[in-house]
Design brief:
The radius of gyration is 36 Å and the shape is globular. Helix 22 packs across helix 23 (about 495-510) and helix 29 (about 600-610) runs antiparallel to helix 30 (about 620-635). By secondary structure, it is mainly α.
């Protein structure tokens, strides 16, 4: 019910109603107001000027009734006195740059009435935020006049916006519980003849995209054809392609217009797209965090997983909203439930988080993407009968990743050849393919059982775990949880991740064993360390509920975030990386920006990297630096050390913000203490040496230089040069700190030899000359 209270607080806040208006409203709005009338009758001694304060908890049969009630109060109060200065209902809007602050608390009795927070008013009254500034607006209207207080906007309520919002809520009352999205709920009866044809073409395109060997160009052409016939889901799909597949600015306004049209029709994915466009300022829009939040909220209500991820990340990080771990947990859990339900025995496509910064810093380092020449080599070896090459290529095509798309048909061919050669691992993977079925093989429990059995007889842990699954669920064999436990235990003893996962499930549910949460946690931890998504999901559920451990919202959110970032949309990371490598920088940047809004740290750092190098023409130079600073801040907040160091550089040099040595030092200190960055340590040493943003201290400078050399071997040469320079500076400083007069006296020979010291010096030099001549005389 928190969403209902949130919207009520957003719309009305608290009401102050004069006595006469309460009586009039009570006659029209029913039993809830009659209680207020009885209270007034009991206090008949009060004066006509007395004001009562009522909370937003008054009950109405619908949101529209609430609107009518508020409107009558506004009209009645405005007619009460011509001398009235304060309107009976006002809106007080509070924003921190691109954020909206909501407040549903009542004012004290007798104070002016304030209704906090319609986003519509913020949109009209607050200019587009300057991304380089972060202003927090607090206080009341009087404080706004003070020079040291920020501005607050107070205006009459926008009744058109309130009415529109309340009617929307009437229509979406059943969706408050966030029911899952159903993409194509339009019945054939509601479609025109052209739209029916478009739907048929659209379904053909969707079937192509579900295959592991996808012809994307053909599918896109079908979607375009269906969109031209007016079929709404196809128009939405094409708009997303224009947004994410555009390397120029020309298609973005077209995509925006389509999204605006479909968002007004209540399409959750289009509402999500509008939230993204307003959050980033793409498509010819001005960045507006309030509108972005509004669209993301309605997209999340409609069931859009991306909108729910975006809201969860905002509540988790406090971007534009008050941080709330519980709200972030709620949104992340909803998306994680869907991700877990869609996982197959293959575990889903592997997620590779490739960082552009790391590749630029270490050009020779492997990125994890397999080179085409290397794949060709393995294919040649497989053709020659190399079983290991056949098995490796089979697993690569079965799971996908490392730059290779899933292709179950090729995986089947390689597994069959390796299995014919007697490889138990290949047999087990064939069992997995037949157990779940795909376009390459039909689902066949009998065949799956035979392959699992053959692999298990060769002590293969994958085959043992497969047999355990079949006995656990009674597929092709009689259900036997004891046998399932034995097979899972054998697989776990050999370190296979599925064995750990299933043992954790059995101990958690008490299937065939005594329920033991500690053992369940143990096995889930072992499986999660191997990257198993379902194990991470189960741990998140246990932390969220406090099952077998102390409840931890923070840990649960981090685990659920890990799960949702392994969803099918993680493929966009590899798509963006491939686009960047192919020279389609704008296309890669937009995809990275979308994933950044969903909370992917690697996407945030890659977005900042592209903007920092000024490789895009989507924004002007000044705006590019401001945006880079924003994304660096978000990546640094998620623990990426190079982003934290670069953030310090931006404040040090004044890129995207004013020069601020103190802020730069703070970021360097965090990177040094928490992330052990050698670069940050070196920078702190230099700032101590020069006294920038902190007290000049040569001893601390040397300490940080030494720490940098210990943290990284690459820092040894720069540190040696810095220490040599520091020694010279130390010597000069020693000389300048001495009294020159004392130094002159200490060097005066007369102090030691008396006034005739020059005679002594001449005599000594003459004696030395005679000695030299004597020693150099010719020998007889």
């Amino acid at each position: 019910m928190w969403l209902k209270f949130w919207i009520i607080a957003l719309s009305i806040g608290s009401l102050v109603i004069a006595e006469d208006e309460i009586k009039k409203a009570a006659e029209e709005t029913g039993s809830d107001i009659e209680a207020a009338e009885e209270e007034i009758q009991d206090e008949s001694e009060t004066t006509i000027d007395k004001v009562e304060t009522f909370s937003a908890d008054i009950n109405f049969n619908s949101w529209s009734e609430l609107y009518d009630y508020l409107k009558e109060i506004e009209e009645a109060t405005s007619e009460t006195s011509e001398d009235a200065v304060e309107p009976a209902v006002q809106l007080q809007l509070m924003t921190d740059g691109d954020a909206l602050t909501l407040d549903g608390e009542n004012n004290e009795e007798g104070d002016p009435v304030v209704v906090h927070g319609t986003i519509g008013e913020v949109i009209h009254e607050v200019p587009a935020p300057d991304l380089s500034k972060s202003e927090v607006l607090i206080g009341d209207e009087e404080d706004a006049q003070k020079p040291d207080k920020p501005r607050i906007i107070t205006t009459k309520a926008d009744w058109t916006f309130i009415q529109h919002t309340l009617k929307k809520l009437d229509e979406k009352e059943a969706l408050v519980t966030m029911k899952p999205k159903q993409e194509d709920e339009i019945s054939d009866e509601e479609l025109t003849e052209d739209e029916r044809k478009g739907k048929e073409i659209f379904e053909k395109g969707k079937q192509i995209t579900t295959l592991t060997r996808t012809n994307r160009k053909l599918a896109h052409n079908l979607f375009v054809e269906a969109a031209e016939l007016g079929y709404i889901p196809a128009k939405e799909r094409v708009a997303w392609s224009q947004l994410l597949g555009s390397n120029s600015l020309e298609e973005l306004p077209t995509a925006r217009k389509t999204f605006e049209e479909l968002a007004n029709l209540g399409r959750p994915d289009s509402q999500t797209a509008m939230g993204f466009l307003y959050a980033t300022g793409l498509g010819g829009l001005e960045p507006n965090g309030a509108k972005a939040l509004l669209y993301y909220t309605f997209g999340a209500i409609g069931g859009s997983s991306w909108a729910q991820m975006a809201l969860a990340y905002r509540y988790w990080s406090g971007i534009g909203v008050t941080p709330s771990c519980e709200k972030a947990l709620d949104f992340y859990r909803r998306v994680a439930n869907g991700v877990a339900d869609e996982l197959t025995l293959s575990g889903g496509t592997a997620v590779h988080r490739l960082r552009l910064h790391d590749e630029a810093e270490n050009p020779g380092q492997s990125s994890g993407v397999l080179d085409s020449d290397l794949i060709s080599y393995y294919q040649l070896q497989a053709e020659k009968g190399d079983v290991k090459a056949q098995l490796g290529l089979g697993q690569l095509h079965y799971q996908g990743g490392r730059g290779v798309e899933q292709d179950h048909q090729r995986a089947l061919n390689y597994f069959l050849r390796a299995a014919d050669a007697g490889d138990a691992h290949a047999m087990a993977f064939l069992g997995k393919m037949y157990l779940e079925g795909s376009e390459a093989v039909p689902q066949d429990n009998a065949t799956a059982f035979q392959y699992f059995k053959a692999a298990a007889e060769r002590n293969n842990p994958v085959g043992q775990a497969g047999l355990g699954l079949m006995y656990l669920h009674g597929r092709h064999v009689e259900k036997d949880v004891n046998k399932a436990f034995q097979y899972f235990n054998s697989a776990a003893d050999r370190g296979w991740v599925d064995g750990h996962l299933q043992l954790g499930n059995m101990y958690l549910a008490g299937m065939g064993v005594r329920r033991d949460y500690k053992l369940a946690i143990k096995y889930f931890n072992l499986a999660s360390q191997a990257g198993n998504t379902l194990a991470i999901y189960q741990l998140a559920q246990m932390h969220a509920a406090g099952t077998g451990m102390i409840r931890s919202c923070h840990t649960a959110v981090e685990l659920f975030k890990n799960v949702v970032e392994r969803g099918k949309w993680a493929d966009k990371l590899m798509e963006a990386y491939a686009d960047y490598r192919d020279g389609h920088v704008n296309e890669a940047l937009i995809k990275y920006m979308l994933l950044s809004d969903l909370g992917y740290e690697v996407a945030q750092s890659n977005t900042a990297f592209i903007l920092d190098r000024k490789e895009t023409d989507l924004f002007n130079v000044n705006e590019t630096m401001v945006r880079a600073l924003q994304y660096l801040g978000r990546a640094a907040a998620q623990g990426y050390a190079p982003a934290r160091v670069r953030l310090g550089d931006y404040y040090y040099y004044g890129w995207g913000a004013e020069v601020d040595f103190a802020s730069a030092a703070v970021h360097y200190r965090i990177a040094s203490d928490q992330l052990h960055s050698a670069q940050a340590m070196f920078n702190l040493g230099y700032m101590h040496e020069q006294g920038l943003g902190m007290k000049q201290d040569i001893h601390l400078a040397k300490r940080f230089y030494d720490m940098a050399a210990e943290a990284s071997t690459d820092a040894k040469v720069p540190v040696a040069l810095a220490l040599a320079k520091l020694s010279v500076l130390f010597g000069l400083r020693y000389m300048t700190e001495k009294e020159w007069q004392d130094l002159t006296l200490s060097l005066d020979p007369a102090t030691y030899l008396g006034p005739d010291w020059d005679l002594y010096l001449i005599t000594t030099l003459l004696g030395l000359l005679v000695l030299v001549v004597y020693l150099r005389r010719p020998q007889p």
